Amino acid sequence: MKNEYHKDIVDILLNCGQEGMKVKNIARHIYNLHYGLFATNVVFDNIYNQIRFYLCRQACLKHAPFMRTRWGYYTIKPDYAIQLDFTIDMLKEEPAGKAPKVRSQERPVQLSLFPSET
Q1: What are phi and psi of 45, to 5 degrees?
Q2: pLDDT, tens only, 31-72
Q3: Helix axes 44-60, 6-16, angle to 10 degrees
Q4: Measured between alpha carbons, how far is 104 from 111 in angstroms, rounded to an integer?
Q5: pTM across the whole model
Q6: Which backbone phi and psi does 73 adopt, to 5 degrees?
Q7: Which of 45, 67, 65 is nearest to 3 (CA)?
Q8: pLDDT at 91 over 60
Q9: Rounded to an integer, what distance in angstroms lies between the CA atom of residue 29 and that of residue 22?
């Protein structure tokens, strides 16, 4: 079962290291991330309880990414693998002596809301 703050919890716990972080501090970080001028449904007590129960339940599971270090402190398991998203540009590299060809006669593609009458 995933929590709506799962990604935020993982990001926060990755930055704090192996000593872990207290649940109240995790909840404060997440509250500050999601609180804004127009956010009316963000309540600290709800976030705190949701995170507290989620981490407690996940720490008991064998394949969960979280573990409890001491009472009220949680961290990421050392063998937990994080999948990273990479954007790979598939450009053909030119040899060192040759410069890439530049086409000066092509017009740049320009998007318009209204079709041109040309």
Answers
A1: -60, -40
A2: 888 887 777 777 888 889 999 999 889 888 888 888 888 888
A3: 80
A4: 19
A5: 0.62
A6: -115, 135
A7: 65
A8: no
A9: 11
